[in-house]
Amino acid sequence: MLACHVQKQGNLLTVVDAAKQLGFGQDTVQYIEKAVLGTTTDAGFAAPLVQQDTYKGDFLELLRNATIFDKLQGYRTVPFNIKINGQATGGTASWVGEGAKKPLTNPTFDSVEIKEHKLAAITVYTQELLRRSDPAVDQLVLNDLIAASKTLIDETFLGTQAQTDVTPAGILNGVVAVAASGETAEAIEADLLKLIETFVEANLSTDGAYFLMSETRAMRIALLRDALGNTYFNGMNFAGAARSLLAIPVITSQSVGDRIELVKMSEILVAQDGGVDVAYSDQATLTDGATTHNLWQENKFAIRVEKFITWAKRRPIAAAYIQYT
């Protein structure tokens, strides 16, 4: 029997209806009604005819924390592998009475060392994947490695670790945290003033400084109201426009965590070689723990990203922070 579907006055005509209209007997109609339904999920019938396709109009990229370092401006650019001498404390003068001994005083000096640090990452995949992947796997991997590099820079830059031969020091290294006194508007304001006082006591202004905080904390601050229902901290928008707190620009990222940091960028020395160096190879032999990849022999391909960058504080106080629990 010829089974076909036709549209009639907007209604779908089933095979059973067609059989009835064509005058087939009741036995035939019942036979059609009992027929097995063929679906795209039936492995023994129509499933092999319908293949799942990949939608090429979009790609679900990994959601990462917003990067901070690239948004900070005003740092001092310096070369790699240098030492910068500076004065730590100054001499003092005193009033001296007639015939009295003049006091002795000496300034103290120290130095800041700029080393050479680099970060790198390599990903290996097969050439079959390179040829057949859609979206193109090489561009996806490259973008992911660059994003991972930026994330590592942020985590290291905002950290408390000391400098080593492998890793730069975090800008909070050696800095004593201001313990948060609360999360009310008054408590936050008092704690922010303590951060600013830390700068003032070190003879630093807040010109060119930034407040760094998580997006979550920025939203909480934006929702604080005074007794009249007005926004307590002007400039702290809930979302959208650029934020400022006490007239100091605010940059947000979840990577900051449970802290509010105050950073003066003119007190940060940065050495870096432009952007990210990208290299490709299908000839090298790579070792990953106990696994060895011979790219030529195994028809594999590798992408490497590498960036030379380091930084150091000009003085011990270039940043201060409030620690929340």
Automatic annotation (TrEMBL):
<protein>
    <submittedName>
        <fullName>Bacteriophage protein major head protein/prohead protease</fullName>
    </submittedName>
</protein>
<feature type="domain" description="Phage capsid-like C-terminal">
    <location>
        <begin position="50"/>
        <end position="292"/>
    </location>
</feature>
<dbReference type="GO" id="GO:0008233">
    <property type="term" value="F:peptidase activity"/>
</dbReference>
<dbReference type="GO" id="GO:0006508">
    <property type="term" value="P:proteolysis"/>
</dbReference>
<dbReference type="InterPro" id="IPR054612">
    <property type="entry name" value="Phage_capsid-like_C"/>
</dbReference>
<keyword id="KW-0378">Hydrolase</keyword>
<dbReference type="Pfam" id="PF05065">
    <property type="entry name" value="Phage_capsid"/>
</dbReference>
<keyword id="KW-0645">Protease</keyword>
<dbReference type="InterPro" id="IPR024455">
    <property type="entry name" value="Phage_capsid"/>
</dbReference>
